[in-house]
Specification:
heterodimer, A: about 900 residues, alpha/beta, Rossmann fold, Dimethylsulfoxide Reductase, domain 2, 8-stranded mixed sheet, B: about 290 residues, Alpha-Beta Plaits, Immunoglobulin-like, 2 domains, 4-stranded antiparallel sheet, about 15% helix, elongated
Chain lengths: ~900, ~290
Amino acid sequence: MAEKITHSICVGGPIAIHTVDGVIRRIRPIIFDNNDPKGWVIKARSKVGGAQDAEYTPNRKAQPAFIALTEKNRAYSYDRIRYPMIREDFVETPDGKNRNTENRGKSEYRRASWDEALDLVAREIKRLQATYGKETITACTGSHHSWGLVGYKLSTFARFFRMLGYTEIKDNPDSWEGFTWGAPHTYGYYWRLGGTEAFDLLEDALQNVETMIMWSHDPDTTRGGYAGNESTMWRHWLDDMGVQFIYIDPYNNFSSVKQADKWFGPRPGTDAALCEGIAHVWITEGLYDKEYIAKHGHRFDEWADYILGKGVDKTPKDPKWAEEETGIPAADIKALARRWATTKTMGGSGLRGGFGGVCRTANGTEFARLMVQLFAMQGMGKPGQNIWSGTTGAPMDYNFWFGGYSDPLSQIANQPIADKTAVNPVTQKLYRPNVPDAILDGHYEWYGEGFCGGGIDLEFTEHIYPEPGYNKVHMFWRYGGTFMGTMLDTNKWIKMYQSPELEFVVNQDIHFHGEARFADVILPACTNLERYDIGELCNSGNGGYQSHSQTGNSWQVVVFQDKAIEPLWDSQSDYWIFAQVAERLGWGKDFTEGRTELDWCKRFWEKSDLCERISWEDFTKKGYYVAPVPENWERHPGFRWFAEGYPCDTPNHKPFQEEGKLGTFTGKFEFVSESLLYFAPDDEARTPIATYKPSWEGHRSIKARKYPFHLITPHPRFDYHTQHNSSTPWIWEIPENRKYIEGNPYLVARIHPEKAAEKGIKDGDLILLFNERGSVLCVARVTYRVEVNTIHAYGSSGIYNPTVPGEASMDIGGCVNILSPGKLMGSKVPGMAPNSTLLDVVKYEGEVPKTQYFEYKLDKVALQADPDAETCVEIIEGHGFEKIQAKVKAAYVGKVSE
Amino acid sequence: MRLGIAVDSRMCMACYCCFTACKDEHCGFASKLSAAQPMMGQFWIDVREWERGDNSRKIKTATVPTLCAHCTDPACAKAAKNDAVYKREDGIVIIDPEKSKGQKAIADACPIGAVYWNEELEIPQKCTMCAELLDDPEYLSYLGDAKLKKPRCVEACPNNALLFGDLDDPNSDISKYIASQRLTQLEALAGQETNVKYLNVPTVFLAGTVYYPAEQEEVFIGAKVKVEVDGQTFETETNYFGDWEVEWLPKNKDAKITVTADGYKPVSYSAKTDADHYVDSTYLSK
């Protein structure tokens, strides 16, 4: 039978899926054909030594990341949840007590039918809400375990839970904390969560920039969020022109090590001191844009006095002082400051699109504010002078609108996609980093609304759990991904799950992630490839977020996410699962409004500009639509309006404000923050003048005497959140990722040769990373690429594998977030700080734990269901994958021939 | 027609798209030209990466996606019995999955370790340059342009670090690109004619930094640096960070480095080009 080709999109980018006889044969990038539009052309400087002008245009294909090409493997993965399952020692007591909750994480599971599992879930919801009120149920999702406007968490999940009524869990901006909580107090942009506007800056950079400061920034690893490898070539163009790339990061990261002209590795958490050292050089040598600062800076002189040592601490922040903190020679700091000031310089600093680690340290807000101040001092917004991380700002057609996932207009929870908007009647909330604290202590207080795009004051709203008049939470419905690898001090999640306070726990996921094993009922969802959806590459929408993130792509691509294969095993789409529960609760029709998933997909076509560009039939037949960029596209360079004093013309979603002003109280760059003086003058972490403050867990803490190494856990290169390492053994064989030893893929942790020698550690040894919070067994990579006091191991481990299941025991899955502090950045700064972690490291000479993959408990359930089922080891190392495909194919061909 | 792949080490960012696409195509799926690649343990395109430098002050990596070079005169073919390895008219080297059974010598003969031994099937296996797809007229016919059909690794490369085409046609994109770059055969294939062309694979660098006398705490911009290796002289100047660097040095030689700056005593070092070295941070004195 001929191959069928359909399309889809995932966090790694858009893909073409080839299927034969009901099984997936291959996953390819989308190659544009001769009917697709021409790419944009930017005229700019030539390469070094080239002719006067050159033209730059992208490759005629989508450029997904390698993780997108693992989608076939993820579908047939060994850790797929194949059947609905119920915890073996779960007892459905009528009062919710005595349910052996202390065994969560240890217990085995039995297979259940969908009816049995869904009936149980519906009964428990009714019992709990009748007993304690609607607020007794809470639910939370990981981000981006699937892609598409129907299936995303703000759509189907939100529709179900808002209709049900529940205690919402607010997300923290965990990828760029310091920019959300800090930068708005210096330059506004709270509507972009502290990030700046990068419109059309690619063209500006190609024409003008001379130096790129890549500070805490690894674009080839974080891939602009969900833009795959779309922007890699842009940075090569700049490199070819002779633009100088300066990388600053305690780890000589993967972008740096291939492209940097200079790498600086400051001691972790001291970056703000380096900022101050640079400022000292500029102020003493007059190397900044005085006219710009006089016009646009607010209380600059007071800050300058602080830098020069005329402030309260009487300490000049000169390069020698900065050397003491950062470990970077004073001479080098001076050279860096002068290069930055005397050439046209752009840079990224870990805000959205870059996701570096410094903004996730204890001092992250101050670093973010100082970064903005430094760029302001060099005339931010003038040609070639801007915050621009080299990952966004490609030309696009601003007049074409197809919604992104955070757009309220692009969610099936709301009108106009739905006939009726779903509204949650419960005002009580929880805050994600502290859910275990709230459940275990029965009380929690915090500031802020998580993502505070609606206004700077939202950072300071006060919350208490339980809210007056409300009951506590007794049921947790966990959906997609795992927080064991992404939240902090994650051993406390074990304690939470084992608490009798949680009478009922549901986990709904595709793969058997780290938290699924703590549930009473496990519901198997299918992958994106097994259901219908619709979505645009890298469009995150405008919902109090950042608009036009699609400019991180070379191409604007909307994809019909066709159903390539039938759901595997007993899995079903998330939409089906929620609809079934709603049906059992008596409001199934209200939930679906009579629509199938395909009907919902069509609503997004109909309610967006897409319906004016291509018919539904043509769109679903071709599978994707590329929005052309007009030859003379509108140009609105980010921040140029401000620098040059014309009315703001960038296509931002932003509150109305006086023309020519920023979103701060004064409308200027605030070197002394008036908003902080107003809202939080006593904030110890975020002072009115942004200053370097040694971390509460850093080289100046008492703890450093016992735990001298500084762990940094940046966003992973070989994964996306927690979603690929657990399901795709191929990537365990990437030497910089993991090392597969006797059935276990140990995570790579990096250590400097000098320290490794002191500890007797050789490259490839097993090493134990430990502190008072836990221990994680990793494999050593001895390398000059790390700063000497640093241990580098990527965060967001998809694999969580404690040697004693259900206990805070040594983890061999690489879940290093176990070691990170649960403490928030400051008493009024509700951000997390995984890169402020101290620990010690030792060569591991104990017994190597015999593989006891928790996932292998799936084998028992699978073999019960089918004695001929493929086991996990067989799928990883043997022919399990082929056997699964052969079975599915036989069933499919049988059905077709009937 | 001679089909080839150009591998540009400079453009490769080790993103692993080629590696994953190759696994996606061949793991668990046999074709007329090859048995299925096992799920683990074989890397028909292997992103080989090594660290360059011995000091955190100057450290880089080299990345070379390494696949069967499709040699003109393949060592594996010479080691093979009963024509188990053959070269197609388009230059692609294929190991016959049936005739090669039991012939471990074929795998052992490859100078770059690009042929893998399958213990279970007892056959040697390697890259087919996706010839089974190139041969199939149905494959990707929906795109309507035969030129869009490429080996999976090349198609998946986002950065043009892998190019595919006809080496015999001087006007093909691949031929023009190769002509514009530094052709650097892998050491283990020295002297061999191959249809996979490795470009810009680095040799070794020497680097250092020059400062004014220590108490001044200033980098020295514009110091002259002369590196003499094997009768050749390389000259450079320190940049805005006081850094100097000389790339593409001949390997395994003795080098003499001289740093001179007006008004200061010249400083000289000796070094070896056995590997990449950061020579020193030089503090000048009067």
